[in-house]
From TrEMBL, chains A, B, C, D:
Leader peptide range in chain numbering: none
GO function term, MF aspect, one: formyltetrahydrofolate deformylase activity
InterPro entries per the UniProt record, alphabetical: ACT-like_dom_sf, ACT_dom, Formyl-FH4-Hydrolase_C, Formyl_transf_N, Formyl_transf_N_sf, PurU, PurU_ACT
EC number of this enzyme: 3.5.1.10
Protein name, as recorded: Formyltetrahydrofolate deformylase
Protein's UniProt keywords contain Magnesium: no
Family annotation (PANTHER family): FORMYLTETRAHYDROFOLATE DEFORMYLASE, FORMYLTETRAHYDROFOLATE DEFORMYLASE 2, MITOCHONDRIAL
Length: 289, 289, 289, 289
């Protein structure tokens, strides 16, 4: 990591990969990195006993170009049948945020993006309502009002897909977007759409969950951020948060506290995704945080 | 609270009550306390909008005897149709602990009781196995081995009931007791038996919950301490705790961490019950902690 | 609390009081409330053994006017030498926020106020810089730029005092305001100005605290919200929060995480103050949360 | 990791190392592991920008013997000027626990060791008092009473050193041992003695810290587990924990809650040390947890 004064300026990269576990993976990858004049600054590996998969994330610097580094790694990746990605550090994930009327999560994401702690660009906000348009305007993010009715749902998803294509969207964040996406869209967004929902111990099925939680007198309320799958709210979990509550809180106050927790869990999940710290291991995630 | 030098030594009491909410409750109770020369040291009240019940807990001192104070309060309690209890401070709740093979929760309770932070006496430990007998012996608590087989369950519960009667048991703590109590016993123990079980977000039904939690990659695991009802694991919640885990923990490690959290939640619930801080409001608890 | 159909509409009030502890306080207060046709919905009392003071907070409803209720309570308050306040529920605390360049805490407060979870009005934001003016504009709050230089400090504080008088300010929140207030102003604002600052275990003196915390490899970073006193950062603590960090976080990342925690602790402290849940007990606070 | 049926049974190892950061470290280490037929199951690396050091921890399996693996790694270690250790997985750290009268931390450690969640052996408990002897007896651990008086301190430390030598002690845990070790002993135990002490925000100097914390009305109390250095309570931090408290807790109750937190922080620190997850980076620790 200590560069000699006459070395060319180094670029920072992040490599993530997963593959069937077998001997020699780290050695092969590090050989490719040495060949690319790479210096590792932070790295983590994990072999999953259940799925027999191996996971690796490497932050490194190299004086070579992205293309040169990519080429060095490609042969190794191929030899080990890796799923892999090479990211330029500092390149921000192009993120589309969807929301409905509640602005808590959206406000959190926009503020953190602006403050520089969330490495994403937000070229678009999509909503089925108009309430959050002023917030989008304040942050200078184009706001797309795409209303959804039972008979226009297909059409609305077509507009969303078109927008994603046009804007090169890499990540979709459902920041309290209160419409259910179609199975087709969920499948197409697999691994690149993050949703947030409330979580309780015990869990409550059906409508008005905070009223149910209040009626049971729960002492903790929580939130789960997860990847979207067609199985509603059952996708791989990225992050969870809870806070303590007591009997004196009304259902409405629980819901307000819940939205705080949702904002925190969602922001963390988006940050970890955007920093390429989340890898999929079947139905669960490996988070190199 | 500042007693004059020649005042008789004051006794400390705790009063708890609940009744249908209407004007004048606090005034009537405080009038009775004034009549009993009582000085309030800590108190809390809460009116539950959902159930229309009013809850009150008062710590106070008085130079009068327990019987005298009781008499002063009885008329008020009757006039307002109160459920109420008057406790001598420092009188320890007679507690029977039931456990099976896992000693984590039992060890916590015994250690805290011995250290003086848990205001209970433990005249008996009941187990359907023998593994925990040495731990009971170390703390000098009589250990009762009551094995349970499908055809001896009634008999076992009869022995338990006899033991409870003989020892004047006021509270039963199920500290990882892995047998299901009969509906009759659950009903008879209503409000004076505390159980602990694991809790997750989302919750998992069926066997091997930590394996399920591991397979879903949960980021938090928790525990819920609750009063026993005939509806298994659905009784009024007293306390909940969680801790953070990550992908590298095996199902066995999750279970070990889970037992830590269970021990903490159960100890707190027992403490609050024994300090008369928990009142029942239908399916939920009011905890004046 | 269950009003008869023909009763006049009830108003909700909050009463807070403290006085030297002696028998009969609760009884006298509840007698006044009965005389005012008051119904208690939530209440808490606490006698402080150290200072010999008694503290009480009561939420109640009454069909009487504020003036009538106030009159009923005044005689009791006088008899017990109480410090006391009677608040109309729903009346929002008039709050002036001061900030410098960092917007995290300000953004939190503005969002929560707008969302209705923080019972305050914000008639003014004061800053010694201009960076946060657009945020104030977005929320429609008048922004007052009052620069501070060593030789203009008195003048700046005069402008602040004039603004507070003109706007009937009841609470000042220092939301990362990086100027030290004069001793005179601190004294005048005693009990009605809240500050936020970072907190660590162990604590670090002097400049660049997050660099010091990083150098020591702390595993938790925190924030403390407290009342302003002339003894810098040593006023009565209202709320504290922490989060977990690890060795891989840089000092800059620690500072960013720290500002999250600061925002949370400050918002809670402001909420509790505005809900009249915080009472002063010498150098410490009683928080009836 | 997937072994062929006729492969020799693999042994599990943990390698930890640190060295001056430069290119090729991971590659060289992984080459040695490949040469030793090693399969990595979990691994983490970190380059510390402040100290210019690189840290690595690798869990791996190999069919070779400890000596063979050690030989393969030794050349690489030498070439990169590494501080390094190779541990057989499952080999338990030989740990001597020192305590005085308070048994909370000791009880936690003994219970967890017995339960199998703490990979240590405890061949001796040393105390300057006799109160904890029965607890040691219950767990079958030899108890050594080494009283300490001002004029016998040297002698007491000589006995301790002799005991450590005789029992091949690798780790000393000060589990609320209320005597200050000499500078010489602290230096000799550097990196292999763990202490626990209370921590507050703000911190309090001098005697009776819980009384000071109570007088300031802190809302959180905590504990810090750290390596012993001659600079009292200022050694590299391994783990920190906090819990929430409120105004109603007395100083004695704060101290009881504090001992819970101390037990938790200390147990975690010992676990991580014994799992070879803690590496020293100057005044701070890298914890690969």
């Amino acid at each position: 990591m200590i560069s000699s004064p006459d070395a060319p300026a180094a670029n920072a990269f992040t490599l993530t990969l997963s593959c069937p576990d077998r001997p020699g993976i780290v050695h092969a990858v590090s050989a490719s990195l040495v060949a690319a004049e790479g210096n590792i600054t932070e790295s983590a590996q994990f072999g999953s006993p259940e799925t027999g998969s191996f996971f690796m994330r490497v932050d490194f610097t190299s004086p070579r170009s992205y293309e040169q580094v990519h080429t060095e790694l490609a042969a190794t990746a191929s030899a080990f049948a890796m799923s892999w990605e090479l990211h330029r550090a500092g390149r921000r994930t192009r993120t589309l945020i969807m929301a409905s009327k509640s602005g808590r999560c959206l406000n959190d994401l926009l503020f953190r993006q602006r403050a520089g702690t969330l490495p994403i660009d937000i070229p678009a906000i999509v909503s089925n309502h108009r309430e959050l348009e002023p917030l989008a305007d304040f942050y200078g993010v184009p706001f797309h009002h795409i209303p959804v009715a039972p008979d226009t749902k297909d059409q609305a998803e077509d507009r969303l897909r078109a927008l994603m294509a046009e804007l090169d969207i890499e990540l979709v964040v459902l920041a309290r977007y209160m419409q259910i996406l179609s199975n087709d869209l969920c499948r197409d967004l697999s691994g690149r759409a993050i949703n947030i929902h409330h979580s309780f111990l015990p869990s409550f099925k059906g409508a008005r969950p905070y009223h149910q939680a209040h009626a049971r007198g729960v002492k903790l309320i929580g939130a789960t951020a997860h990847y979207v799958t067609s199985d509603l709210d059952e996708g791989p979990i990225i992050e969870q948060e809870v806070i303590r509550v007591d009997h004196a809180r009304s259902a409405a106050q629980l819901a307000a506290l819940g939205s705080d927790v949702e904002g925190r869990a969602l922001s963390k999940a988006v940050q970890w995704h955007a920093e390429h710290r989340v890898l999929l291991d079947g139905r669960r995630t490996i988070v190199f945080s």
